Amino acid sequence: MRFKTTLTITLTALLAGTTPWVSAASDEMQDSMAAAKSGEFSPYVDAKGTISRPPEFRDKWVHIGSWFVREDDQASGPGVHDVYAEPSAVEGFRETGQWPDGATLVKEISSIREGQKTTGFAQWAGEAGVWFVMVRDRQNRFPENAAWGEGWGWALFTTESPETTTTKNFKGEGFNNCFGCHVPAKDTEWVFIEGYPAIRDSANYGK
């Protein structure tokens, strides 16, 4: 079903503007570095594999790219899809060509606004509706948790549940069928990197 009809979008104030490039001293990067030094897998994953939505990702993470999915009869998720990654994860990808263990990606899907501007007819992001979070797991840490599979943890957050994931199974129904959506990206470790100009030229997947 289509995004605008399957999700109830609560109208809220627009989130703060994004700062796409930040110093390595950001709070989120410090959290990730501290987690690595302590042996902790990720500051966004608890001992049972439950994923939380990273705070302040729009302010302190790297905006790696956007997707624009127009509203038509074939679109299951129309909207503006903005994707962010931790600075440390981006640095790791640029060094190796693949996402490092523990790397976290956040995709925020917003409604589409449009109108005539001085440069012409324009479209832009409106209110945020859902957030997807992926956490790279190269060690299969949570084999009993169905929200984890294919080397990633998968989580969906909505405006009705912004702090608690609704994903119980990454092969679930509707927007929780993460596996079905990402099958075309299997050869690039389940991530559609072609849409991310901040990192795609560094990709190393044997092609």
CATH superfamily: Cytochrome P460
What's the structural domain tally?
1
First and last CA, distance: 35 Å
Number of strands: 6
CATH topology: Chalcone isomerase
- SSE sequence, one letter per element: HHHEEHEEEEH
Radius of gyration: 17 Å
What overall form do the CA principal axes indicate? globular
Q: What would you say this structure looks like, in words?
A:
This protein has 207 residues and is α+β, with helices and mostly antiparallel strands. It has one domain (3-9, 18-202): 3-Layer(bba) Sandwich (Chalcone isomerase), CATH 3.50.70. Helices cover 17% and strands 27% of the residues. The chain is built from 5 helices and 6 strands, in the order H-H-H-E-E-H-E-E-E-E-H. Strands 1-2-3-4-6-5 form a 6-stranded antiparallel β-sheet. A hairpin with a 2-residue loop joins strand 3 and strand 4 (120-136). The chain is globular and about 50 Å long. Mean pLDDT is 82; it is low at 1-26 and 31-39.
Keywords for this entry:
globular; Chalcone isomerase; disordered N terminus; alpha+beta; 27% strand; six-stranded antiparallel β-sheet; single chain; 207 residues
Summary, kept brief:
17% of the residues lie in helices and 27% in strands. A six-stranded antiparallel β-sheet has the order 1-2-3-4-6-5.
Layout: helices, strands, pairs:
Layout: H1 3-6, H2 27-38, H3 57-60, E1 62-69, E2 79-85, H4 87-96, E3 104-117, E4 120-136, E5 148-149, E6 152-158, H5 178-182
Antiparallel strand pairs: 1-2, 2-3, 3-4, 4-6, 5-6
